[in-house]
Specification:
By secondary structure, the chain is α/β, with parallel strands linked by helices. The protein is built from nine helices and 13 strands. It is globular.
């Protein structure tokens, strides 16, 4: 059975006051929480073994019929630490396992593309990222990150600050698939990382997921892109929610993301 681990420990300070009494992943987007939308699509494509890493307002996730893992250091750690809080969930996987940020939504067709793409690790990459970034930022380059490909189409760099648009072949989105046969090796790799170093200027416990993926790339892992064109949204701020709700009311959101209900 394929599994999915949703990383939803964060508070989402930039979403205040929407997160005053609710964690970031339970913020409503067009009448339904972000994580509810994820779970619906996962279930539709046969992924029913779902767990959630919680932190801020963890008790709010009790309404979901999902196993939970509590990151008690959610306010001082980042996604990589949340991922390995659920080490036992990773170790018990029977097939490929999906990792998803709790602050995104994506269409079923995008999830299917990730499912169908081979590789040690597969990440969903948006080739049409400029559409979304241009709506959310005056200068898309300010908030974008590098993503470069090698000769065989594998990702060779991601998550760095770009100097020009030429360094951005797509954008990492926060949806990942780990091949079943690489799960144990992934855990072993994490255990061997030097805890005393800085990674892209951050301590080990505050390491970005992109920094962790880059370490894997440099160690010879084959990380492949599952290329999509829109079909997903990221929610970071109240302005994001307001933008998406307005576009939806105007009938203009579908080119970015079509809700499945």
């Amino acid at each position: 059975m394929k599994s999915c681990l949703i990383l939803a420990a964060g508070e989402g300070k930039r979403l205040q006051p929407l997160t005053k009494d609710s964690p970031k992943g339970l913020v409503s987007l067009i009448g339904k929480s972000l994580i509810s939308r994820q779970i619906n699509n996962l279930n539709t494509l046969g992924i029913k073994n779902i767990a959630i890493v919680t932190g801020y307002k963890a008790e709010k996730f009790n309404t979901f019929q999902c196993k939970t893992f509590y990151n008690k250091f959610f306010n001082i750690t980042n996604m990589v630490e949340s991922l390995f809080i659920a080490r036992s969930f990773l170790e018990s996987a029977q097939e490929d396992i999906f990792i998803s940020y709790g602050d995104i939504v994506y269409e079923k067709k995008n999830l299917q593309i990730v499912m169908d793409t081979p590789g040690d690790i597969v990440v969903m990459v948006d080739d049409s990222w400029v559409d979304l970034w241009s709506l959310r930022n005056e200068d898309p380059l300010n908030d974008a990150e590098t993503l470069k490909y090698g000769e065989k189409g594998q990702i060779i760099e991601l998550g760095k600050k770009p100097k020009s648009m030429n360094e951005i072949k797509g954008q990492y989105t926060g949806l990942i698939k780990i091949s079943y046969h690489k799960i144990k090796e992934l855990i072993d790799f994490y255990d061997q990382i030097n805890r005393s170093l800085l990674y892209d200027g951050r301590s080990f416990k505050q390491m970005y997921m992109t920094s962790f993926l880059q370490l894997l790339i440099e160690a010879g892992w084959k990380i492949m892109p599952a290329k999509v064109n829109n079909g997903w949204l990221e929610v970071d701020t109240v302005k994001d929610i307001q933008l998406y709700e307005r576009l939806s009311a105007e009938g203009k959101l579908d080119f970015l993301w079509k809700k499945d209900d």
